[in-house]
């Protein structure tokens, strides 16, 4: 999956690079070719003028051997394939290539086209008409140029009388130039452009790959690894991406998500545990009560009757005692499972706090506990069962009292309207408003290992004094109020319980 | 309840009542759990009671028609008509019969309902031989008392007090706490008390759960049920002592424990200020 993204991007960008470089190279080469050809044409024209002017004198003198020598000299120059002269009928009178001499030209071919394009040959070439031709047209290797030699008075007045006065065109001078050098130059350019394109594409692709790798692939693979960890159940795994881009944001929100998931899971796990303990308790009680009754009645009856046999009596006492213990365990479970559904009403939480405080006032004084109340007026009403919430607060106060021992300490109870941060931090929907209730003490605190367990049923550090159901019940009550309870503790410093209760939305019965 | 000392008290109640009763009361045990019905049957018979037993309410009603028992020991869970239905029928048609309900601990709410419907007492399962016998003994003594004074058990509760059956009461205090105690009648039925076991401070009480255990002179332990749920914040120190004679100045029905009620308003609805007996 991660390869596909980079390959796709590299293929796309590479393709675009190829296209751009291709078009650029094509235009560049075309311009270069045109330039070279134009240059060549110019030099061809220049050459033919040179040939004409340098041979004119010899022509007039009719010194053909000198003429041919001159032409041959010119024709042997580099870049000139051949120089030919043919008469009006197309017969090659002279050529630097001796094999051509005497041959007839096809008027439709080669250099004749300038005048012989129509059926009736032109007597005179119109000015600016094209006298050059690249041959063969598809992949030219030569440039042909013609120049008709017109009759002039000096020609027919010459001593040799080779030409009469009525002749318009005496012959045609034709030079064929090689394009080898031009083509070679073009080929070199093409190869250069190709190499440039390959290097450019390779460089761009490499850059893109490295860029994608560091910006996208590595962070993505980190996030993928994190999702796998989370999928495998490790909800404490976090992605450590220190990036400020979208992926960094993704990693942050991923972390937030797992944190919330983990909270929600813990919450769910706890409710499940409470619910199943309740169900189990009810089931066990029902099943176990009857057999336990039979054991208890018969054993206690036997104990009553057997007054004379001390050793049997002792054993029976054990049976009765232990059966009673079973009964107490079942009873504890059932008391816990019995938690009733709250009767929620709009209530002033401060009033409930004050009531709970009033109940414990004497005890606090007795235990040297200083109580600080921060109860701001005009808090929104909460939707709560007053007596159950009072139970919760009394429970928390008593726990705080226990935690502070004989030397006493300070309990602080604070109520406040919960802001959005607190709500969000506790994984609650921000659509509802909440009131926060904080109960802090300066007691012995909770060891870090125990913090996650304190709301579990039957967890107690009070030994025989507690049944381990007090905070589980508190938790159950808050849960049934659609609220949240969390605990923070610093061993030796104290403990703070934090409760969030939903604000009354007007739907509960007044 | 009025304060004049009852004759039972001055003479030692158990002796008097047993003398009054011509014969041991007749008991009907209604429970489909044969092992429990059997145990109750065997134990009560051994204690000198006349015992009959049946597994369902319909059969029990037939037995009532032919010869109504003095005391009916009824389990809540019965095939067909429930124990509660049977209780209501008996209270309506045979008001002279005393009904003691047997319940599981999970049925604490039902227990409160039984008391409201006129049950004399209830015994949570699993129970000991003593718990069974003490309840039956008190019932027997109640019948004996009723022979002397037919109004017994039908008096109004004292002002401000709410009663759980004839056994215990609660009085809400101004400061949000509540006082719990046992009735004078309960004390009379128990007889001369030599020891009172009370919960300790911080214990959680349940409405219908254990409030106090009173040991009578004959070593029989009698259980009084709490009329309210809540956390114990104080106990009456004097109540721990033997009531008679060292603490004779302490009224029989003085409070035993002070609690922080869990749900005062709701739970008071389960109680009555007037006895229909």
| Overall form of chain B | globular
Q: Strand count, sense and closure of the main sheet of chain A?
A: 5 strands, antiparallel
Order of helices and strands of chain B: HHEHEHEHEHEHEEEHEEEEEEH
Helix and strand pattern of chain A: HHEEHEEHEHHHEHEEHEHEHHEE
The chain-level mean pLDDT of chain A equals 81
What is CATH's topology name of the largest domain in chain A? Heat Shock Protein 90
- What oligomeric assembly is this protein in? heterodimer
Radius of gyration of chain A over all CA atoms, rounded: 55 Å
Task: Give me some keywords for this one.
heterodimer, A: 510 residues, alpha+beta, Beta-Lactamase, Helix Hairpins, 3 domains, five-stranded antiparallel beta sheet, 12 helices, B: 277 residues, alpha/beta, Rossmann fold, OB fold (Dihydrolipoamide Acetyltransferase, E2P), six-stranded antiparallel beta sheet, five-stranded parallel beta sheet, 9 helices, 26% strand, globular, disordered N terminus
What is this structure's SSE topology?
The complex is a heterodimer of chains A (510) and B (277).
Chain A: H1 2-61, H2 64-75, E1 80-86, E2 92-95, H3 113-116, E3 132-135, E4 142-150, H4 153-156, E5 169-178, H5 180-231, H6 246-305, H7 310-337, E6 345-347, H8 349-366, E7 369-374, E8 382-384, H9 386-404, E9 409-417, H10 420-425, E10 434-441, H11 448-451, H12 470-480, E11 484-490, E12 494-502
Parallel strand pairs in A: 7-9
Antiparallel strand pairs in A: 1-2, 1-5, 3-4, 4-5, 6-8, 9-10, 10-12, 11-12
Chain B: H1 7-11, H2 13-20, E1 26-30, H3 34-46, E2 50-54, H4 57-66, E3 71-75, H5 83-93, E4 98-104, H6 108-116, E5 121-125, H7 129-148, E6 161-164, E7 168-172, E8 178-182, H8 184-190, E9 193-197, E10 204-205, E11 210-216, E12 221-225, E13 230-235, E14 257-261, H9 264-268
Parallel strand pairs in B: 1-2, 1-3, 3-4, 4-5
Antiparallel strand pairs in B: 6-7, 7-8, 8-14, 9-11, 10-13, 11-12, 13-14
């Amino acid at each position: 999956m991660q390869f596909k993204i980079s390959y796709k991007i590299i293929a796309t960008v590479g393709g675009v690079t190829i296209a751009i470089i291709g078009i650029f190279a094509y235009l560049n080469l075309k311009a270069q070719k045109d330039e070279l050809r134009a240059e060549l044409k110019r030099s061809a024209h220049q050459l033919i003028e040179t040939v004409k002017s340098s041979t004119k004198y010899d022509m007039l003198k009719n010194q053909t051997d000198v003429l041919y020598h001159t032409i041959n000299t010119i024709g042997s120059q580099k870049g000139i394939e051949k120089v030919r002269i043919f008469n009006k009928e197309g017969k090659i009178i002279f050529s630097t290539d001796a094999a051509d001499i005497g041959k007839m030209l096809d008027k439709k071919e080669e250099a004749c086209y300038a005048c012989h394009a129509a059926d009736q040959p032109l007597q005179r070439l119109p000015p600016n008409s094209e006298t050059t031709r690249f041959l063969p047209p598809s992949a030219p290797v030569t440039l042909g140029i013609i120049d008709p030699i017109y009759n002039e008075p000096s020609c027919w007045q010459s001593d040799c009388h080779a030409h009469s006065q009525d002749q318009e065109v005496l012959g045609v001078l034709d030079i064929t130039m090689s394009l080898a050098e031009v083509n070679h130059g073009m080929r070199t350019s093409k190869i250069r452009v190709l190499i440039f394109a390959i290097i450019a594409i390779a460089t761009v692709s490499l850059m893109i790959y490295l860029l994608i790798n560091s910006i996208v692939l590595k962070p993505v693979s980190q996030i993928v690894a994190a999702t796998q960890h989370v999928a495998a159940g490790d909800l404490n795994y976090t992605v450590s991406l220190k990036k400020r881009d979208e992926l960094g944001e993704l990693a942050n929100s991923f972390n937030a998500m797992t944190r919330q998931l983990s909270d929600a899971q813990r919450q769910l796990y706890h409710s499940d545990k409470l619910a199943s303990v309740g169900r189990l308790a009810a089931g066990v009680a029902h099943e176990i009560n009857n057999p336990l009754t039979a054991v208890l009645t018969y054993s206690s009856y036997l104990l009553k009757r057997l007054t004379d046999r001390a050793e049997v009596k002792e054993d029976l006492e054990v049976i009765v005692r232990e059966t009673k213990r079973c009964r107490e365990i079942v009873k504890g479970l059932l008391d816990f499972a019995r938690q009733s559904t709250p009767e929620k009403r709009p209530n002033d939480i401060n009033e409930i706090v004050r009531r709970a405080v009033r109940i414990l006032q004497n005890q606090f004084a007795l235990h040297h506990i200083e109580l600080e109340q921060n109860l701001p007026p005009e808090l929104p009403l909460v939707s709560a069962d007053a007596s159950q919430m009072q139970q919760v607060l009394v429970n928390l106060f008593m726990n705080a009292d226990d935690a502070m021992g004989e030397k006493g300490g300070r309990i602080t109870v604070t109520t406040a309207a919960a802001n959005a941060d607190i709500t969000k931090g506790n994984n609650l929907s921000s659509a509802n408003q909440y009131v926060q209730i904080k109960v802090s003490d300066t007691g012995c605190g909770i060891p870090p290992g125990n913090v996650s367990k304190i709301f579990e049923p039957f967890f107690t550090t009070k030994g025989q004094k507690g049944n381990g159901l007090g905070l589980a019940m508190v938790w159950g009550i808050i849960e049934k109020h659609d609220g949240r309870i969390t605990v923070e503790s610093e061993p030796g410093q104290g403990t703070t319980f934090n409760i969030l209760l939903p604000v009354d939305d007007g739907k509960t019965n007044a | 309840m009025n304060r004049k000392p009852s004759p039972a008290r001055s003479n030692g109640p158990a002796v008097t009542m047993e003398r009054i009763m011509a014969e041991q009361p007749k008991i009907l045990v209604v429970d489909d759990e044969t092992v429990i019905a059997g145990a109750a049957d065997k134990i009560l018979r051994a204690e000198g009671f006349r015992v009959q037993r049946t597994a369902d309410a319909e059969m029990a009603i037939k037995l009532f028609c032919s010869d109504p028992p003095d005391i009916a020991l009824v389990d809540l869970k019965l095939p067909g008509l429930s124990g509660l239905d049977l209780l209501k029928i008996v209270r309506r048609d045979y008001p002279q019969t005393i009904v003691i309900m047997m319940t599981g601990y999970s049925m604490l709410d039902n227990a409160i309902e039984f008391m409201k419907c006129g049950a004399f007492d209830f015994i949570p399962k699993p129970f000991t031989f003593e718990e069974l016998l003490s309840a039956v003994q008190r019932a027997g003594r109640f019948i004996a008392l009723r022979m002397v004074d037919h109004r017994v058990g039908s008096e109004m509760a004292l002002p401000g007090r709410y009663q759980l059956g004839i056994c215990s009461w609660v009085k809400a205090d101004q400061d949000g706490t509540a006082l719990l105690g046992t009735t004078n009648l309960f004390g009379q039925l128990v007889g001369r008390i030599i020891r009172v076991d009370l919960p300790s401070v911080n214990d959680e009480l349940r409405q219908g759960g254990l409030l106090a255990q009173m040991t009578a002179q004959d070593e029989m332990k009698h259980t009084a049920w709490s009329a309210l749920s809540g956390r114990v914040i104080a106990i009456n120190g004097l109540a721990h002592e033997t009531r008679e004679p060292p603490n004779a100045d302490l009224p029989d029905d003085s409070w035993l424990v002070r609690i922080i009620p869990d749900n005062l308003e709701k739970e008071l609805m389960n109680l009555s200020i007037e006895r229909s007996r």
